[in-house]
Amino acid sequence: MRDVWVVGDRFAGFARLNGVTTVSGAGDVLDGEPVTLRLGQGVGPHERDHLRALVERRGLADRVVVVDTTPAPAGRDLVHKHLAANVLLGDVHAAGGGIVTAALRLAGENELLLDHQTGLHVQGMVVIEAVRQMLLAAYATASRRPDDYVVWNGIQLDFESFLFPLPARLYCALEPVTDGRGTARVQVEQGGRRVASALARFTAFAAERIAPVEQRRAEGALRAGMPESLTAGAST
């Protein structure tokens, strides 16, 4: 039985490779021969159900297997995203040795894919956002304080290879947090190869502490941005 990867229609460039097709093009590989359709990035439950229905309609259920290993999206409390399509992580868990790991899950309608897709690889902005979500998820998982407000102080991110629309995992090692300040090392791996690594510095605040600080700074920015005439009028 041959294997064919199925990726979202946005990754049509990658689907030009042998052994890959898009959701819309999957019917072309159902030629009656036994085949395993393995779902890659950009293929959600709606697309998966479409593929399974297509197999049933063609009477190929005994020769075609649809394999979906995409995990459910991580919860809001871990990644601070309200729309499931914008959640880039699933299967978040502690892996031992101070490491928290998660699977990359990229929906075809993710906010970072709405403009365009260049080349065969996944856009670098997706990697950056996945690293951000991984830091939040790792801190919430390791500290058991999901309500803390985590602020990035700085990040150094190195791209070491292309990320393609296939399964990938992220790993995050958190150094001990002192006075709310911490450091995290994140790696993105695909096919046994590291494609990106990041060193992030952050500060974690209790939610009730950060709110008044943010408000004071917002008010200061507002005053600084006002024309002098309005500022003078506001002070009288």
Automatic annotation (TrEMBL):
Protein origin, superkingdom: Bacteria
The organism of origin for this protein: Phytohabitans houttuyneae
UniProt domain A-factor biosynthesis hotdog: residue ranges: 78-203
Name assigned to this protein: A-factor biosynthesis protein AfsA
Database matches in InterPro entries: AfsA_hotdog_dom
